[in-house]
Amino acid sequence: MTKTRVVVLVSGRGSNMAALIDAAAAEPDFPAGIVAVISNRPGAGALTIAERAGIATAIVDHKAYGSRAEFDAALDKAIRSFEPDLVCLAGFMRILTDGFIEGWAGRLINIHPALLPSFKGLDTHARALAAGVKLHGCTVHIVTAEMDSGPIIAQAAVPVLDGDDEDALAARVLAAEHLLYVRALKLWAEGRVRVTDGKALVDAGGDADATALVWP
């Protein structure tokens, strides 16, 4: 079986990246393989996790470049050196230029810690608590030029409990993220995701839980 080659972009601890690596390693028939992990931060903990798993790593330090365009050009070159079919953002804390996104159009996905289109951007858990919502969660989506607005592949809903603070809610959402990103990558790698009229249509194969989870 020819597996989808995946490069993961990270900036921090890499827990979502680790979930993808673990799934690919644990299931012999998992349809994707993580071929490289690239970070914009030299000290990112994700790099150590990837190296221990025997996965190639690279650093493209955004502080070494004078503009977003220059950084994105260097990042694009690094990614292409691994010849991936798909790029997964996993806690990658950089806003990508339109030109970069266009170059990877349809092959760039992200996980966002909220139920899009609600709470785009940062500080999603604090904003969800402030809004008093009863359901929060996470979303895997295709990256487009408009931030956190691309076609939605899959979502997981997480209850907001009485007494939750930001840390408690974040931990519950993160556990759901680890499951959801693996499911979404598997669906993508199996060729079961297609975009029509700006929406991601997913062939769930009769699995009603494939693209919509309720956690726990």
TrEMBL record:
Report the catalytic activity.
N(1)-(5-phospho-beta-D-ribosyl)glycinamide + (6R)-10-formyltetrahydrofolate = N(2)-formyl-N(1)-(5-phospho-beta-D-ribosyl)glycinamide + (6S)-5,6,7,8-tetrahydrofolate + H(+)
Choose one Gene Ontology CC annotation of this protein and give it.
Answer: cytosol
* Sites where the protein binds N(1)-(5-phospho-beta-D-ribosyl)glycinamide: G14, S15, N16
Keyword line: Purine biosynthesis, Transferase
Site annotated as Raises pKa of active site His: where? Answer: D148
Q: What is its EC number?
A: 2.1.2.2
> Which pathway, metabolic or otherwise, does it act in?
Purine metabolism; IMP biosynthesis via de novo pathway; N(2)-formyl-N(1)-(5-phospho-D-ribosyl)glycinamide from N(1)-(5-phospho-D-ribosyl)glycinamide (10-formyl THF route): step 1/1
Pfam families tied to this protein:
Formyl_trans_N
Where along the chain is (6R)-10-formyltetrahydrofolate bound? Answer: R68, M93, R94, I95, L96, N110
Q: Where is the Formyl transferase N-terminal domain?
A: 5-185
Family that this chain belongs to? Belongs to the GART family.
Q: Function, please? A: Catalyzes the transfer of a formyl group from 10-formyltetrahydrofolate to 5-phospho-ribosyl-glycinamide (GAR), producing 5-phospho-ribosyl-N-formylglycinamide (FGAR) and tetrahydrofolate.
The name this protein carries in UniProt is: Phosphoribosylglycinamide formyltransferase
Q: Per the UniProt entry, what species is this protein from, by scientific name? A: Hansschlegelia quercus
The gene name reads purN
